[in-house]
UniProtKB/TrEMBL annotation, chain A:
Occurrences of domain Dihydroprymidine dehydrogenase (ranges): 21-131
Identification of the protein by name: Dihydropyrimidine dehydrogenase subunit A
Database matches in SUPFAM superfamilies: alpha-helical ferredoxin, Nucleotide-binding domain
GO molecular function annotations of the record: iron-sulfur cluster binding; oxidoreductase activity
Lineage of origin: Bacteria, Pseudomonadati, Thermodesulfobacteriota, Desulfarculia, Desulfarculales
Domain FAD/NAD(P)-binding: 144-451
InterPro entries membership: DPD_II, FAD/NAD-bd_sf, FAD/NAD-binding_dom, Helical_ferredxn, SudA-like
UniProt cross-references to Pfam families, sorted A to Z: Fer4_20, Pyr_redox_2
TrEMBL record, chain B:
InterPro entries: Cyt_c3_hydrogenase_gsu, Dihydroorotate_DH_Fe-S-bd, FAD-bd_FR_type, FNR_nucleotide-bd, OxRdtase_FAD/NAD-bd, PyrK_electron_transfer, Riboflavin_synthase-like_b-brl
Protein name, entry field: Ferredoxin-NADP(+) reductase subunit alpha
Record key words, sorted: 2Fe-2S, FAD, Flavoprotein, Iron, Iron-sulfur, Metal-binding, Oxidoreductase
CDD domains: DHOD_e_trans_like1
GO MF term list: 2 iron, 2 sulfur cluster binding; ferredoxin-NADP+ reductase activity; flavin adenine dinucleotide binding; metal ion binding
Length: 468, 283
């Protein structure tokens, strides 16, 4: 009898050492070499009823693509993934896999789950460097025109899907570069901008037109697109572009930023390469970032890379409630970010020139569970402390930007200002108008926005083909 | 994409006007609105008001003072060059209606911002009294245009080299004393200290007053919160809620402070730019 084969442990992706990477903006994980990818793929049991697929919001056929990786057929693997997911290079890097595909993986019951995200990333990165991958076929021109408002992962998915169906697609983007949060929010060290640019170039090659520097609601309205410009359908995917502040005293002092501003300056405007790039950004000696999600982790790790040594994450609940991806928290800790759990800011204190110099924090404790099911943080009477802070970044969430909704006739919004749209089809109350992504759900994830885009693209195609 | 069609120096090479091809914006723009531009790939996004628009030609005109690296770079561009990006129209248009007598006060390059608003008020049938000022005669811009856009024009220079010797606030006070309650509204646009003092004067007379705030901006769409200003007990975003606000409620000192946030970096950028320029001309 053959000796029982020893179990292969989960393969770790090589990454830059924490000591080095905390001072540069290069990507942290370096990617799997082919052998490691195939070894990791061999850990998948090719389940008949794959639980992992149920965990993926767009149902990527995970066992099928992993099988192809096992066989070394990477072309086969990428074609499998593309059936469901247009941006595997992005999702492989930023999906909260531990709550989605990997969180469901059966291997994870006893051992560590199969590294589905890393494998997806590997396949996509491999494919990006080939030039003989067949282009998806593009159907005969239909003569129908679709306008996509916003070029985040949702809008790009709609554009990619509909161009293949033969429709004419124009994407309108307020910024000077397409990509949405993928270019202005998520930092280079987590998602290299060359990857996003590659995806957008690929769309252009397929025939998608990009009109940057167009603020819909100002430069042109949704109604004008439909009535004057001859578009047959409009998809609104403008994201949750409204920063939330803390509404505490001192918030307008210099040195206090919304995460949106701080990250836009550093990512989109490349302030980390000042003075080669003209946009400035301040470097704090004592940085405090408020919040505990992905946005907070990105702000923390960016300020560390900008040259700060004292960087604190101030979060009002405990470690267990941190909403950020596990990998980001882990990376942040390795890089020397200090976590202040159970602290909530009361006010910022300024110096004589109007710069923030300190923040007053209230210590909290966890009480009974609240509506979200998490234990509600409550102040501990009398325990207030002051910590040094000359750069404060507020990352406590985003709201609905009213620029498009307030200038479009007949769109329904809910009490928070998000657009009311059908969950599956993205249809809104207004004829010929669809919506999806963060402007419908509130700040969520890349793959949910892409999934919503796919559903809407199907519905738009159906409408353009058959009418109502 | 965004071609510069003409370049005019309005004052000693420190105030420049450019007509730029941007048909979509030209078709939509209203007085009081602005654009954000980026000169080149490595450039910063800066806001500038449209001093004029020409829908037929598909152009907008910007008038700006050279104060730092980006405006210096912009001023170094020639007619026929292209700008990397121009986005707009941004901000809310000035609410213009027939009210009676309106006083429009402009200082420095603020006069360029004030011009389309003045013209708008006159065209709406108001009696428009315009007061413009500059540090000296050479820095005074758009006198002719302002004369045409208003019913009465008063000019001041700080050093007395032209017109009334003194500040626009002096003339503003005189006019308010003369016309009293007939003045329905004042619009004051210029450097922050000037707007602050004009606002003090009109407050004493109880005249509703609008100012246009030049907060530092990034996106111009309400996404980043960089441009926040304190107005009464509310925090407003100048790019989408403004740029015009009720002068009697604005925290001018807070705005002044926030405008200094990047002084150190701005100087570094300008010094490096000037050094590079002088090297390349020597070479
Ligand atoms: C810093 C940060 C980190 C994140 N990290 C993760 C992560 O690790 N994993 C994950 O899954 N998700 C993450 N997210 C969330 C994720 O990025 C978003 O859920 C997703 O990008 C939403 O996609 P979207 O298509 O709805 O819109 P967005 O990506 O928000 O794009 C909307 C686009 O529309 C444009 N726009 C807005 N208004 C107008 C207008 N009036 N006219 C024209 N264009 C307009 C915007 O400029 C933008 O380009 C993160 C978000 C942030 C901010
Ligand atoms: C709505 C609005 C309309 C404006 N219209 C005009 C105009 O018609 N003509 C004109 O001459 N100026 C106008 N300005 C001011 C103009 O934007 C600044 O002079 C310009 O950004 C300076 O850039 P710089 O690189 O040359 O100088 P810098 O050296 O970078 O800065 C000089 C000063 O300009 C201000 N500034 C810097 N960056 C920005 C920014 N991104 N946004 C806003 N202000 C900034 C700061 O106060 C700074 O101290 C306007 C500003 C706003 C907000
Ligand atoms: S798209 Fe995201 S959730 Fe789905 S398999 Fe890929 S990494 Fe997992
Ligand atoms: S659940 Fe895990 S083992 Fe099963 S198919 Fe999915 S990845 Fe493979
Ligand atoms: S400039 Fe970003 S919100 Fe006004």
């Amino acid at each position: 009898m053959k000796k029982k084969k020893e179990k292969t442990p989960r393969q770790a992706m090589p990454e830059q050492a924490a000591e080095v990477r905390r001072r540069n903006f290069d990507e942290v994980p370096l990617g799997f070499p082919e052998e490691l990818a195939m070894l990791e793929a061999s850990r998948c049991l090719s389940c008949k009823k794959p639980a992992c697929v149920e965990g993926c919001p767009v149902s990527v056929d995970i066992p099928a693509f992993i099988n192809k990786v096992k066989e070394g057929d990477f072309t086969g693997a990428i074609l499998k993934i593309w059936e469901k997911n247009s941006f595997p290079a992005v999702c492989g890097r930023v999906c909260p896999q531990e709550n989605q595909c990997e969180g469901n993986c059966i291997v994870g019951k006893k051992d560590k789950p199969v590294a589905i995200g890393s494998l997806e990333r590997f396949v996509a990165d491999w494919a990006r460097n080939q030039n003989d991958i067949p282009m998806p076929p593009i159907e005969k021109k239909t003569g129908k025109k679709v306008a996509v408002v916003g070029s985040g992962p949702g809008g790009l998915t709609v554009a990619g899907d509909l161009i293949r169906k033969g429709h004419e697609v124009t994407v309108f983007e307020a910024f000077h570069k397409p990509g949405g949060v993928l270019v202005y929010g998520i930092p280079e060290f987590r998602l290299p901008k060359a990857i996003v640019a590659h995806e957008c170039n690929f769309m252009e090659k397929m025939g998608v037109k990009f009109e940057t520097n167009v603020v819909v609601g100002q430069t042109i309205t949704v109604d004008e697109l439909l009535n004057d410009e001859g578009y047959d359908a409009v998809y609104i995917g403008v994201g949750a572009g409204l920063p939330r502040f803390l509404n505490i005293p001192g918030e307008n002092l210099m040195g206090v930023y919304s995460a949106n501003e701080y990250l836009t300056r550093s990512n989109l405007m490349k302030a980390y390469r000042f003075p080669e790039y003209d946009t400035p950004l301040v470097t704090g000696e004592h940085v405090c970032v408020f919040g505990g999600g992905n946005v907070a982790m990105d702000a923390l790790r960016t300020s560390m890379r900008m040259g700060s040594d004292d960087v604190k994450c101030i979060y009002r609940r405990s470690r267990d409630e941190l909403p950020a991806r596990g990998e980001e928290i882990h990376h942040a800790e390795q890089e020397g970010i200090e976590f202040f759990f159970l602290h909530s800011p009361l006010r910022f204190i300024g110096d004589e020139n109007g710069w923030v110099k300190a923040v007053e924090l209230q210590e909290m404790q966890l009480g009974e569970p609240d509506d979200s099911g998490r234990r509600r943080p409550e102040p501990i009477p009398g325990s207030v402390k002051t910590v040094d802070c000359d750069l404060a970044i507020i990352a406590v969430g985003a709201g609905a930007n009213p620029l498009v909704t307030s200038t479009t006739d007949g769109l329904d919004t809910n009490k928070w200002g998000y657009i009311v749209a059908n969950e599956e089809t993205g249809k809104t109350k207004k004829g010929q108008v669809w919506a999806g992504g963060d402007i419908v759900t509130g700040a969520a994830t890349v793959i949910l926005a892409a999934g919503a885009g796919r559903g809407a693209a199907d519905s738009i195609h159906e409408y353009l083909t058959w009418g109502w | 994409m965004y071609q510069i069609l003409s370049k005019t120096e309005l004052a000693q090479g420190t105030v420049v006007a450019n007509e730029i091809h941007a048909p979509k914006i030209a078709a939509k723009a209203k007085p009081g609105q602005f654009i954000i531009l980026r000169v080149n790939e490595t450039g910063e996004r800066i806001p500038l008001t449209m001093a004029n628009t020409n829908e037929e030609r598909g152009t907008i005109t910007i008038i700006y003072q050279v104060v730092g690296k980006t405006t210096a770079l912009l001023a170094s561009m020639s007619a026929m060059d292209h700008l990397a990006d121009v986005v707009g129209p941004l901000g809310r248009p000035t609410p213009i209606e027939k009210k009676g007598t309106i006083i429009c006060v402009g200082g420095g390059t603020g006069v360029a911002v004030l011009h389309p608003i003045t013209k708008g008020f006159k065209e709406a049938g108001n009696h428009v009294i315009a007061i413009i000022g500059a540090r000296n005669k050479d820095l005074l811009i758009m006198e002719k245009e302002m004369k045409a856009a208003s019913n009465e024009l008063y000019v001041c220079t700080d050093d007395g080299s032209y017109g009334h010797h003194g500040f626009v606030t002096d003339v503003l006070k005189e006019q308010l004393e003369k016309h009293g309650a007939a003045v329905k509204e004042a619009v004051c646009i210029g450097p922050v200290p000037m707007m602050k003092f004009c606002s003090k004067v009109t407050k004493d007379f109880g005249i509703p007053t609008m100012v246009s705030l030049n907060a530092i901006m990034v996106d111009g769409t309400g996404m980043c919160g960089c441009c926040r200003v304190q107005v009464g007990d509310e925090t407003k975003f100048a790019c989408v809620d403004g740029p015009e606000f009720d002068a009697h409620k604005v925290d001018f000192d807070g705005l002044s402070a926030r405008l200094t946030a990047y002084q150190k970096q701005e100087k570094e950028a300008m010094d490096a730019y000037q050094k590079k320029c002088s090297c390349s001309t020597e070479a």
